[in-house]
User: What shape does this take?
Amino acid sequence: MSDSVVTISPNDLDSCWKPYTANKQFKSQPRIFVAAEGIHYLTDDNRKIIDGSAGMWCVNAGHCNKKIVAAVQEQVARMDYSTAFQTGHPGEFEVAAKLALMAPGDLDHAIFANSGSEAVDTALKIALAYHRLRGEGNRTRLIGRERGYHGVGFGGTSVGGIVNNRKFFGPLLNGVDHLPHTHNPEKNAFSRGQPKHGADRADALEDLIALHDASTIAAVIVEPMAGSTGVLVPPIGYLERLREICTKHGILLIFDEVITGFGRVGAAFASERLGIVPDMMTMAKGLTNATVPMSGVMVRSGIYETFIESAPENAIDLFHGYTYSGHPLATAAAKATLEVYLEEGLFERAREMEPYWEDAVHSLRDARHVIDIRNWGLVGAIELEQIKDKPTARAFDVFLRCFDKGLTFRTTGDTVAWSPPLIIEKSHIDDMVSILREVLDETE
Ligand SMILES: Cc1ncc(COP(=O)(O)O)c(C=O)c1O
Assistant: This one.
């Protein structure tokens, strides 16, 4: 990071209502970043902080990658914007073609949006419209999963399964049901990688089919690895079983790979690592290394063709899209990002680093307050014992103390969730572990 960074501290914190933030606490003790490079942030009081969460599971190639920054700078000076509706620009086609090569099976068509939430709502709407176009308009039910996170749109909130994200917002979408989550600490605590027990939880889908009838169900959406709820790694065989049941009953299977995409689990996508082809796959975050907001949905050929072939001549085939779908700055960032991933071999790097990472996070097993540790790819979750009647308090306190010692990360519930940039070095991993251990040792 350059020494010439001008650090400016804002003098009005009140006007900005920060999302998913304890605003009162934050404004009494603000944590302000003014620059970033590689795996570090720089704070407004000139401290270097290790980014243990790759931003928010998104800066997979590390901060301010030079090639990505240059691509965005070049694009903004050449063409700032053009609409994706009825006109196009080269970038959106180039990125879609690259993604089609990267995605498994015949997930060969990409439709773009700007955030994970928008990608999820896009996929859910495509599922509903697809069945309708095929004369199965009764298939309107959407199935999510307890503890799932699919963003904050009404669709994503409805299929999501994290209580606090739902309970404030009324009845949400009609006709949504949920599979049980896969967390089973009695049998799977301290599992390394995919846990052994829990494939049979996919059979709950057969129960929902028995209850609602398959002819009413449009789609099942799950995160291959549930991230935001505290990292629940899929049990061995579980996702394969979901795929089988969905295929058997003509239900579309959507994998929400907003977190698991782009090397996070040591492959381009979790679906690639597991050899499963979902019918649609949502992506965001690592797609542009978070440099410019962008998301997308990969769609299997049969679905895409159903829309294209159903539309009368010169008529729109999908009544859906955003002003900023395929924004030129976003596609410039995505194109450069995908090239960086390949040129620097970052997905392979993540896979190679996984055993070291796994040993490092599991070395915290004997640290104070630790009740479970989970890992997959370059993701690690250290679950702490909840302080009686004060859920989230311990993890948040640990987060604040680690921040003071030069490490930041996401916490969810009482789980410390780590997902560093894929360029992380072993020495940084050692630093993360020793800072957390030190803090746990001093925490009551
Ligand atoms: C699996 C998953 N889906 C969707 C989203 C929503 O993405 P965004 O915050 O970009 O709307 C997230 C965000 O963390 C996510 O983890």
Summary: The chain has a mean pLDDT of 97. Residues 115-117, 120, 149-151, 223, 227-228, 256, 258-259, 284 surround pyridoxal-5'-phosphate (CB under 6 Å). The longest helix spans residues 116-133.
